[in-house]
């Protein structure tokens, strides 16, 4: 179904714009009651309970005439309940993949807008489309017996083409005049995979001279203008962003090969097939890892099949799945005719097309690789929403995981549009009580308010504001952020968060030491109130800012009274408890030193970190805040499980879900929950950029207009370099350390400034745009930096 791409306009409007009225356009497709042919798919006879049926995709077309070729403009608005590809006169319109993306279809549907004048002709023209289940009626989340269909039964297309001529306007809409049939897509599902039969493709069906007289009438439903909102997405589209060639093609016998692409990625395999006999089936299966005997390890996919099939038509063919995506490094190709050569296969990397704007490198190849692994994990988990994992039967927009990684992700990728889109999803999912859900878009998980997850509704908009400086976006979220604070107050007797906790996951995936859940919840209570207070101040809501600042002080006092004793011990005596209390300034000033000692002691008792996904984000920053960066480096350089470099040492190219996802002693962890592309533990990248490299965007100059540069060097690194592309130019830092000499180079872009705090010095230097160099002497055993005072901490942390 490849064709020359038409001229396109991708999201040419501001995110405030709404699509024009649909006129008489209808939702079209096949009737829900139609008994279509269904194909059973499943794991085989050993798992008959997993067998489900998937239905063929619907082809749609409509011909129309134009009296003249002198066209002033031609604008196409299109969307789908499900997924679509659309063509005008045989030209594929746009390069979007999995369009129109993932939303809560009860709340809104995103519309794409294209300019198609150049592909229209005088005389006969045709619009053609194919629609697939996608998120709308395919398998989403855990499914749990729903057999897909979370929002609807069958996909639908809605389109309106407005052609402006010299003295006339021609409107072509989706209506009862369209025709429908099927083609080569036997089925397509995001989790289960895609099957195409090359023998059944109606040749030339997207061209105007095709005979569709045997096709069936479409089912058409009027658009409910009181239903879901139609909006343009603020996020870039999902596209093919990269093509990876195989690193190894290994024959496994029996017309079966295993291909290693060298990188855990999200996308599909494109396969060139020559010499296949008509009806011959080629199978593609996907996995993140291999078993010891070199076969695919797929147990951790759970019920997601991730299995693509192509039925050959014969001759020279290309198979590229169009309406699915898989998380994989390895692909097994079975039934391939002849010998599979590396030139016959490649991997197409798919994700929301977010630009790379940040870099980090250093004298340690392992740490540089860790940063790249974080970036690949972020890319793989951006299919229109930030997801928890891309390979198994889940792939949901978990709020907790996302708010933890966002402080790292904004250093690496331009996520302004993504966060504007996703915070709208979060607002769409907010309940009348003010609570936020576990996932957004809301997809079958109905409980709300989980500490660390629901708090993302306040935290993520603030992260976006610090990174991109848009008061408009912050204002769009402010009312929902404020409602969340009201919800917290209502569910926190004595300002201790004990009610309305939803699933209350705690410090998810901690490594053997559980942090008291009321402690974690109350710490997040304080964190949410703090960022909403900052938002009020940034927006000029001075009365709100004063009230919320006073509330933060009261929550802090309640936390200290409930969870901190006179010796600086935090209830539970866990690394997570100390790290959160220290980094969020929930320890009295006079007890911070003792609390930091207690944190170090909690690490020393076991000799490694024990934090789950929440504690791991706060652990290294808390140590550095307390003047103990050397201990943070100890954790960073550790290469035995549990540690970040354990993953790198064992060949990881993305971040794992679990510290012990695989170990030499025990092999793979329990496959019920063991993703190898899961970004929550990658939150350490924030510490690498903010403390190791030393760049902290400040809230008095959001959007990188003012940054604190305060490196925390360690003798185990001889140099570190980091950069960030801002709207006005590159902000970059490099330091070199060969004891006792420490040299720092900083480049500040136009219209920005920086505050320089050299290691071991309390004095700071203010600099403006341009290149600046600094030098000082540090002892070989220099402990990274003196502890920050609570006042300084409160300012720089935000």
Outline the structure in words.
- With 798 residues, the chain is α+β, with helices and mostly antiparallel strands.
- 24% of the residues lie in helices and 29% in strands.
- The strands form ten sheets. Strands 14, 15, 19, 20, 21, 22, 25, 26, 27 and 28 form a ten-stranded mixed beta sheet that branches. Strands 1-8-7-10-5-13-16 form a seven-stranded mixed beta sheet.
- β34 and β35 (706-709) form a beta hairpin.
- α11 packs across α12.
- The radius of gyration is 28 Å and the shape is globular.
- Residue-averaged pLDDT, rounded? 93
What's the overall geometry? globular
**Helix percentage range:** 10-25%
What's the helix count? 15
Report the uncertain regions: 1-15, 43-51
Number of strands: 41
- Approximate strand percentage: 25-35%
Terminal Cα span: 49 Å
* Rg calculated over all Cα atoms: 28 Å
Describe the sheet with the most strands. 10 strands, mixed
Broad structural category: alpha+beta
């Amino acid at each position: 179904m490849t064709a020359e791409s038409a001229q396109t306009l991708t999201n040419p409007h501001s995110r405030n714009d709404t699509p024009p009225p649909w006129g008489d356009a209808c939702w079209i497709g096949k009737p829900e009651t139609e008994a279509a042919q269904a194909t059973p798919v499943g794991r085989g006879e050993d798992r008959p309970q997993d067998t489900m049926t998937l239905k063929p995709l619907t082809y749609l077309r409509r011909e129309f005439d134009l009296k003249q070729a002198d066209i002033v403009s031609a604008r196409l608005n299109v969307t789908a309940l499900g997924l679509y590809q659309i063509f005008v006169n045989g030209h594929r319109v746009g390069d979007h993949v999995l369009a129109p993306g993932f939303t809560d279809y009860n709340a809104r549907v995103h519309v794409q807008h294209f300019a198609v004048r150049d592909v229209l002709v005088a005389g006969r023209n045709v619009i053609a489309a194919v629609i697939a289940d996608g998120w709308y009626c395919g398998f989403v989340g855990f499914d749990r017996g729903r057999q897909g269909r979370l929002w609807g039964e069958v996909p639908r297309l809605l389109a309106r083409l407005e052609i402006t001529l010299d003295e006339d306007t021609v409107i072509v809409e989706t209506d009862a005049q369209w025709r429908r049939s099927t083609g080569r897509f036997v089925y397509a599902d995001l989790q289960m995979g895609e099957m195409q039969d090359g023998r059944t493709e109606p040749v030339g069906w997207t061209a105007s001279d095709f005979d569709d007289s045997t096709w069936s009438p479409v089912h058409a439903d009027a658009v409910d203008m009181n239903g879901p909102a139609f909006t343009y997405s603020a996020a870039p589209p999902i596209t093919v962003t990269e093509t990876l060639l195989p690193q190894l093609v290994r024959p496994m016998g029996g017309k079966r090969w295993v291909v290693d692409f060298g990188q855990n990625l999200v996308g599909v395999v494109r396969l060139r097939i020559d010499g296949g006999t008509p009806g011959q089936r080629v199978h593609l299966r996907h996995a993140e890892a291999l078993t010891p005997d070199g076969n695919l390890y797929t147990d951790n996919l759970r019920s997601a099949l991730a299995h693509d099939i192509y039925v050959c038509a014969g001759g020279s063919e290309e198979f590229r799945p169009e309406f699915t995506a898989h998380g994989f490094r390895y692909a097994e190709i079975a039934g391939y005719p002849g010998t599979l050569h590396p030139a016959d296969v490649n991997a197409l990397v798919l994700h929301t097309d977010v630009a790379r704007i940040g870099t980090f490198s250093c004298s340690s190849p392992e740490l540089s690789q860790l940063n790249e692994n974080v970036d690949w994990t972020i890319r793989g988990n951006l299919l229109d929403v930030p997801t928890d994992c891309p390979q198994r039967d889940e792939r949901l927009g978990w709020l907790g995981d996302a708010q933890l990684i966002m402080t790292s992700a904004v250093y690496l990728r331009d996520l302004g549009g993504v966060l504007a889109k996703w915070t709208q999803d979060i607002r769409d999912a907010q309940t009348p009580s003010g609570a936020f859900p576990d996932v957004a878009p809301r997809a079958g998980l109905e409980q709300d308010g989980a500490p660390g997850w629901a708090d993302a509704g306040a935290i993520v908009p603030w992260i976006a504001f610090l990174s991109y400086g848009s008061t408009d976006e912050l204002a769009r979220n402010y009312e929902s952020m404020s409602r969340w604070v009201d919800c917290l107050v209502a569910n926190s007797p004595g300002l201790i968060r004990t009610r309305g906790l939803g699933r209350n996951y705690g410090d998810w995936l901690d490594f053997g030491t559980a942090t008291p859940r009321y402690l974690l919840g109350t710490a997040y209570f304080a964190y949410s109130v703090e960022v909403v207070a900052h938002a009020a101040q940034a927006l000029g809501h001075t009365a709100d800012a004063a009230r919320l600042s006073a509330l933060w002080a009261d929550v802090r006092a309640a936390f200290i009274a409930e969870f901190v004793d006179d010796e600086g011990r935090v209830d539970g005596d866990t690394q997570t408890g100390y790290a959160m209390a220290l980094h969020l300034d929930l320890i009295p000033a006079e007890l911070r030193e003792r609390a930091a000692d207690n944190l170090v002691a909690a690490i020393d008792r076991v000799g490694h970190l024990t934090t789950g996904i929440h504690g791991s984000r706060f652990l290294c920053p808390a140590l550095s805040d307390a003047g103990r960066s050397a201990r943070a480096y100890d954790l960073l350089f550790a290469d035995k499980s549990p540690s970040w470099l354990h993953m790198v040492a064992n060949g990881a190219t993305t971040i794992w879900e679990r510290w012990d996802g695989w170990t030499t002693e025990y092999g793979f962890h329990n496959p019920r929950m063991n993703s190898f592309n899961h970004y929550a533990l990658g939150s350490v990248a924030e510490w690498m950029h903010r403390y190791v490299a030393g760049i902290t965007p400040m809230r008095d100059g959001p959007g990188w207009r003012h940054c604190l540069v305060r490196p925390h060097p360690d003798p185990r690194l001889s140099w570190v370099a980091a950069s960030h592309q801002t709207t006005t130019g590159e902000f970059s830092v490099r330091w070199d350390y060969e004891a006792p000499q420490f040299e720092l180079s900083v480049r500040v872009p136009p219209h920005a400034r920086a505050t320089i705090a050299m290691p071991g010095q309390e004095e700071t230097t203010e600099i403006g745009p341009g290149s600046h160099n600094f030098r000082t002497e540090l002892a070989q055993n220099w402990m990274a930096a003196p502890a920050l005072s609570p006042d300084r901490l409160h300012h720089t942390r935000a």
